[in-house]
């Protein structure tokens, strides 16, 4: 009598994990079709494969949740999409030295496990979303060498003030304003802050 119940529980868990993996794969595939990929680095991102953990440049944890996307210097162009904010287990989003354009979606601020956001040397424009201040696990934020405008949200500086954000690089953008010298953080918007323990 116990065996059928155990089998049902196993199948239910398997179905949940499969649906979760499939959803993350759907998000990444939806992004892929918005990108130009002249070097074909996303060839393995196949929508017919339910589990994106088999795709190149994608790393997963033991539960098959996507934790890393590593696409540095891949020759990609196109936008970031809001659905990327639904990769809730993502810890590293490394998409530097490409030709990514458009704005940074505010939905990126939903990636609460994110440790590193590296979008340097792209063609991003628009404002830095205030929602990035929600990323309390973030240790490294590199948005330098883009076309970002406006002022830096105070929520970003609060991450540094709390001691969580170790490296912030916003240099070589079109940002304006500075942090007042009386602010305990006390640095200009283009300065890189490094972990004092490093």
Automatic annotation (TrEMBL):
The keyword ATP-binding does not apply. InterPro entries: Leu-rich_rpt, LRR_dom_sf, LRR_N_plant-typ. Residues 1-21 form the signal peptide. Pfam families: LRR_1, LRRNT_2. Keywords: Leucine-rich repeat, Repeat, Signal. Residues 23-61 form the Leucine-rich repeat-containing N-terminal plant-type domain. This is Leucine-rich repeat-containing N-terminal plant-type domain-containing protein.
